[in-house]
Amino acid sequence: QLLPIATEQLQWMPHVNPKLHMPLIKFIYWSIRQLDTVIQHATMRSTMRRLGEDIFKGIVSKGNPHSSSEQSTESKSKSTAFFKSSCMSLRFLSTLIVLKTVTQVDYLAQAFDSLRIDLKTDEGKALFLEYQCVPVVLSHLKVSSRGLLSSALDGLLQMTMESGSLQPFLEACSNESFFQTCSVLLRSSKLDIPVLEKLCVLLQKLSRIKSNKKMFELFGLHQMFQELHRTINPDHTFLCINLNSILLNLGLLRSSSLASSLST
């Protein structure tokens, strides 16, 4: 019930102190995340789409209707940027809202591009963890979203770079939801090699965590990787290296076998 009101409040943002922008955007984000477990009616979906579009495009106001005509003239065409804000924390959170609310592929592609760039920084990685972003990105890891799948994985791959955020990120991915999503992707015959490589990099990092072995087994990933290892074209060197490493970490490949396969 509060989300439509918050959406209306966005229209006033050009006329309020910029310090108030972040609290409103943060409230909207966590409200949307709470709706993940709720069946959304058509009216709510419409509100969400409008919200996402406003966040993406920014708000342009033609003047404050509660001010005098003289003040209104002065404040004409004030604007507030959210997704395109120069403030990283506001931009980052706005990007997540866009990813959660809009359906237009071009908007989503720009959002993932913005996310990938911000995640190259330590601040961006910290924000990713603070706002518990794994489920947000995970919802876009679908074979049916082929145009966005690679972009979504690019964002996750930025989080696998060596940093203080790496271990907390891997822990955030170490759950049934993440592994089930990966399992569905790997069972698809439509994955191209570059996407498969990115997915294997992620899973190679996760295979280092011993407790994740049960996750690989639960969703049959260990068998899929064994089959891939047996059938993959050895010319795909990078993919082969990651497959070997995953199987080695899972105790399904001896180090001597790894050495011989890399030397051939």
TrEMBL record:
* UniProt name for this protein: CC138 protein
Superkingdom of the source species: Eukaryota
Known Pfam families for this protein?
CCDC138_C (PF21035)
InterPro entries referenced in this protein's UniProt entry, alphabetically: ARM-type_fold, CCDC138, CCDC138_C
Q: Where is the Coiled-coil domain?
A: 2-250
